[in-house]
Design goal:
The complex is a heterodimer of chains A (about 250) and B (about 500). Chain A contains three helices and 16 strands. Chain A has about 250 residues and is mainly β. Chain A has two domains: about 110 residues, no CATH class; about 120 residues, no CATH class. Chain A has a 16-stranded antiparallel β-sheet that branches. The N terminus of chain A is likely disordered. Chain B is globular. The chains are: A mainly beta (about 250), B alpha/beta (about 500).
């Protein structure tokens, strides 16, 4: 069963993950002197909405710049959080301002640096290379890889079970509930995922893609709505948008 | 040390007058509190002032008027004189005002009292739910990460380092649970207390107390009325801790920030492109982490909203009561203090209260008793927005701008600092010196003195008698001469 394989893959990944608090133990490392293969500004907007979709609470917006570089041994991803105020007025500032998260290839893992450049946390990922083929997708999707993506979908979800509109419908049932994935047939990229638990919609995510030169797509936006479990009908909404995207990465 | 004994027969908690000239001074506690919380400060003050301290137990859960009736009955049975002074903390200040409608009172001092109401009376349930919900979400995330042996990921082996992050996240949950527990134990019972209705802004009880008619009556009948107005140090950092556990304020805030960073690392790890954006398991973990990060990012503003209706923390508080609400209305005098949080005000304010009782209420020091340390002249505290010739700021005292947005404070570290809504905007850079006082001298010079009397900073504006320092609404501190001409100002552009 595909779900089982996926869980096994997860276990492989998680087994190698370790996070340590290394407060102030290292100075900021200099960025590699290589050109970025991909960069974007990411904006994450979150809120709590009621059953009808009206915003009850707008949560602080998260902004960071993501840069991916080719370095020895693979691709390094760096996220730099933008300093910001929590509100237009008042003393509250985003405690993540200036924070950097660097994911390095191989056994180097993930490091978190605070605004002063001090290492405040690290996340070991010694098995990243071993499991990368199952979980790492890259950030750009080339037209020429349509058949490869179709095969991957079939491997994970089996054959499509009809269509919703023009989109292919894949269904995966496991102990977590039923997951419905709707895929654009032209690109074989998922456009919508719905997770049903106990007969109710627990999670709905939609994906929007944008065109890049050279017959490629990038994930321009992702919007998810998660039902809160307090029985209130409220939902947690998270919308992530990538803007100012540049790069050549793809496969 | 002067011996103090409770007069148990009166059932008032009256401290027995030691000398005939002692003036009866009644110390009232606030909600969900008891008379014993005044014991230490009242004892110290009775040793230094010609007062007979009384510490009655109030039925704090009933409406203000019922508490005042209870107190009035006790006072009648004890034969309390008409010049009795009432010192009330929190709701005690409002009970004192209500009592003055029933019997003559010689003076009222309120500390941290919500004269204009406490929004927390409205919002405590919502805030408690937020923190409780965050703790539950942390539990869910731990479950997803395999902290439980009963979930689908049982059997996942976590390295020792992962154990550390789990411990850190769990600690954060415990911190939040501790806060919720504090709320449950200390504040939650008032949610069902009848007095709650009186405490809400705009309540009928407050409207009556603050009506023009009553303020006029107070002005005539109780001419000596003083509001001691408190702003907690960095009220916006670790805001719920300021209210529930002030000694854990900075530790608590640090733990939350640390938790946010760790959770961001987890979210980044499980994020695209490390995992496919449509990977359901990764997405679930990512969303759980997002919800907790989101909740933690607003944990300060949730408390600020609960206490002021302003989530941006632009309105200062003592952790529980908004600073503007603590001003004794009408033509009463008000004195500002920067530092002690609400639940610490009784113990932290003995010296300040001594000054108020001497200089504003007119009580007398006991012969031979010491004055305030470092306060030889027992000078009066400054008015709300100006520091005039001869007036001083002692450590933790402040002058606030009329709109409440800026305040000039002389800190315990010896630094004279102007704070605005976004933090410090100017200082004398005298931190690290043993604190003495800052004074607006009669010669027109604003000077900071060390505890040994050595001047270490000045505006160098002497020979301008009658000059006055003003803390202005526009965020400047300005020295004006007697002709209202600007002679010095800060910060410089």
């Amino acid at each position: 069963m595909h779900g089982t394989r996926q869980s096994k893959g997860w276990r492989m990944a998680l087994a190698a993950v370790g996070l340590a608090w290394a407060r102030g133990s290292a100075a900021q490392e200099g960025a590699p002197a290589v050109s970025p293969m991909y960069s974007a500004e990411v904006v994450v907007e979150e809120s709590i909405v009621d059953a009808r979709g009206a915003v009850l609470e707008a949560r602080p917006t998260t902004r960071y710049r993501v840069v991916r570089r080719q370095v020895d041994g693979g691709v390094e991803t760096e996220m730099t959080f933008v300093a910001g105020r929590m509100f237009d007025k008042g003393p509250l500032r985003d405690p993540r301002g200036g924070m950097r998260i660097v994911r390095s290839p191989g056994s180097a893992g993930t490091q978190v640096y605070d605004e002063s450049g001090a290492l405040v946390a690290s996340l070991d990922d010694t098995a990243a290379a071993a499991v990368a083929g199952e979980r790492e997708t890259g950030v750009v999707f080339a037209d020429r890889d349509v058949s490869r993506r179709a095969a991957a979908l079939a491997r994970r979800h089996g054959q499509a079970r009809g269509r919703v509109g023009r989109r292919l419908r894949y269904v995966l049932a496991d102990r977590d509930g039923d997951t419905e994935t709707l895929v654009e047939p032209d690109t074989m990229l998922p456009a919508e995922i719905n997770v049903m638990k106990g007969g109710a919609l627990a999670l709905r995510t939609t994906f929007g893609y944008a065109r890049m030169p050279g017959g490629r797509w990038y994930l321009a936006s992702a919007r998810s709505e998660t039902a809160l479990t307090d029985g209130s009908g409220r939902r947690f909404v998270s919308k992530r948008t990538q803007i100012n995207v540049t790069g050549t990465e793809g496969r | 040390m002067r011996r103090i004994a409770l007069v148990a027969a009166l059932a008032l908690g009256f401290v027995q007058p030691a000398q005939a000239q002692d003036r009866l001074t009644v110390f009232l506690h606030g909600f969900n509190s008891n008379a014993g919380t005044w014991w230490g400060t009242a004892t110290r003050l009775q040793g230094r002032l010609q007062i007979a301290a009384a510490l009655p137990e109030l039925p704090w859960h009933v409406p203000f008027d019922a508490q005042a009736n209870h107190l009035n009955n006790l006072a009648n049975s004890a034969g309390a004189p008409a010049d009795t002074v009432i010192v009330g903390h929190s709701n005690g200040g409002l009970v004192a005002r209500q009592l003055s409608t029933k019997r003559p009172v010689g003076g009222i001092v309120s500390l941290g009292s919500a004269h204009l109401g406490a929004p927390l009376a409205h919002n405590i349930q919502g805030a408690a739910f937020h923190y409780l919900n965050t703790g539950q979400q942390l539990s869910t995330l731990l479950w997803l990460l395999g902290a439980s042996h009963t979930n689908q990921y049982s059997g996942i082996w976590f390295s020792s380092r992962m154990t550390l992050v789990r411990a850190a996240v769990a600690t954060l949950g415990a911190v939040l649970a501790h806060t919720v527990n504090d709320i449950a134990v200390n504040i939650w019972p008032i949610v069902t207390a009848p007095v709650l209705a009186d405490m809400k802004p705009g309540s009928a009880a407050l409207a009556s107390l603050n009506s023009g008619g009553n303020l006029g009556r107070e002005s005539a009948a109780v001419p000596r009325r003083v509001g001691m107005v408190f702003t907690a140090r960095d009220w916006w950092l670790g805001a719920p801790f300021v209210a529930g556990a002030p000694d854990k304020q900075y530790w608590g805030h640090g733990a939350v920030v640390e938790g946010i960073r760790g959770l961001e690392a987890i979210r980044a790890y499980f994020d695209y492109p490390n995992f496919a954006p449509w990977d359901g398991v990764a997405q679930n973990i990512r969303i759980q982490a997002s919800m907790i990060i989101s909740n933690l990012l607003v944990y300060n503003s949730v408390w600020c909203f609960a206490t002021t209706y302003d989530p941006s923390c632009s309105i200062s508080t003592d952790g529980v009561v908004p600073t503007p609400s603590q001003y004794f209305p009408g033509n009463a005098q008000n004195v500002g203090f920067y530092g002690p949080a609400h639940m610490l005000q009784k113990d932290a304010s003995a010296d300040a209260l001594y000054d108020v009782l001497i200089n504003r209420i007119g009580l007398r020091a006991r012969s031979g008793a010491p004055g305030n340390p470092g306060n030889p002249g027992n000078p009066g505290s400054p008015p709300a927005s100006t520091l005039s010739g001869g007036e001083r700021l002692y450590p933790d005292q402040f002058v606030r701008s009329p709109n409440g947005a800026y305040f000039l404070t002389y800190q315990m570290d010896g630094n004279l600092v102007l704070y605005g809504p976004e933090g410090a905007v100017w200082s004398s850079s005298t931190h690290g010196s043993s604190p003495g006082f800052a004074t607006m001298q009669g010669d027109g010079n604003l000077v900071v003195y060390r505890s040994d009397g050595v001047p270490i900073w000045a505006t160098d504006t002497p020979d301008i008698p009658g000059a006055e320092l003003r803390v202005q609404d526009d965020g400047y501190i300005v020295l004006y001469d007697s002709g209202n001409n600007v002679i010095w100002y800060a910060p410089n552009p």
